[in-house]
Write a structure and sequence with these properties.
Layout: H1 7-16, H2 23-45, E1 54-58, E2 64-66, H3 67-80, E3 86-91, E4 98-99, E5 109-117, E6 128-136, H4 145-148, E7 157-163, E8 167-172, E9 178-183, E10 188-193, E11 204-206, H5 217-227, E12 239-240, H6 246-256, E13 259-262, E14 275-276, H7 277-290, E15 294-296, E16 313-314, E17 316-319, H8 321-334
Parallel strand pairs: 3-5, 11-12, 11-13
Antiparallel strand pairs: 1-2, 3-4, 5-6, 6-7, 7-8, 8-9, 9-10, 13-17, 14-16, 15-17
The chain binds 2,5-anhydro-1,6-di-O-phosphono-D-mannitol (AHM) and magnesium ion.
Amino acid sequence: MSHKVSLTQYLIEQQRGQAQLAPQLRLLIEIVARACKRIAISVNKGALGDVLGTAGSENVQGEVQKKLDIIANEVLIEANEWGGHLAAMASEEMDEIYVVPNRYPQGEYLLMFDPLDGSSNIDVNVSIGTIFSVLKHADGHAVDTNSFLQPGTEQVAAGYCVYGPQTTLVLTVGKGVVMFTLDREQGSWVLTDSDVKIPEDTKEFAINMSNMRHWADPVKRYIDECLAGKEGPRGKDFNMRWIASMVADVHRILTRGGVFMYPWDKREPGKPGKLRLMYEANPMSFLVEQAGGAATNGTQRIMELQPTQLHERVSVILGSKNEVDRVTAYHREAS
Ligand code: AHM
Ligand code: MG
């Protein structure tokens, strides 16, 4: 029988090997992975559990919260608050940061998450996920919101779990990207891809086409050229996919390449985009770059952006390197 590598074994090897993964960070990742298993159980219950529909509340962004948004948020907090590995947590679903209560020891890490990404897909049984990002808390400072305002280049780990036909955990600790599949009978995460790589070229793009009339010119130019197909300047036909769960769209790109865009558009001039820098764009950019892809906001590398607010939004273009470079070049030419 071939030997299966579990998440625990992988992390211990990372602790002993070149990555020199800190024991507290190993514990953190194991706890997040365990929380994702619990969330997967709730997701799978669907109409059999009291998990579908709205919760009758709104988050800080004024979005209606689904029951599963709140359940997933609570599961992640409960799982993480007592372990002694965290100073504080921040979530897309909480207005303020959650400092680890005094009754537990404080650790040196900061955890950020989008507990349930793709909320509009929950009730229609389409893939959704959990995204997380980990930063280090600066020594000797009391933890507050400012502690979290670090650029994505400071992330020490990031990942997501996709609740789809399979439950898959995708992770980086800055040494490439690995994928684990949940073995439901054993209850364990099994390593199923030890070196995830995004092809540099692609014939597939992901964007919400219904916003086309609002796009900025460089985005419109890029998509127009893709749509022109073989007869156009790109000389090849493109395919389109849009799942409306960033986790699932990024998962496809990590699996077979592609470019994903949720760009700024003219509807909301004051807002730089829909997706959130700390809970969505930074962790996904870290994963994509570690897999050989690229991620920009049109003009700058996302991971180098200095956040000024916890719930900051950002324009996102990520995936196969040559396509992201092309869209970024179109933006730079236009500016
Ligand atoms: P959420 O975190 O509230 O679920 O919102 C983020 C989601 C992304 O997963 C996805 O890419 C995007 O919103 C879909 O937006 P749209 O409904 O405009 O297609
Ligand atoms: Mg989200």
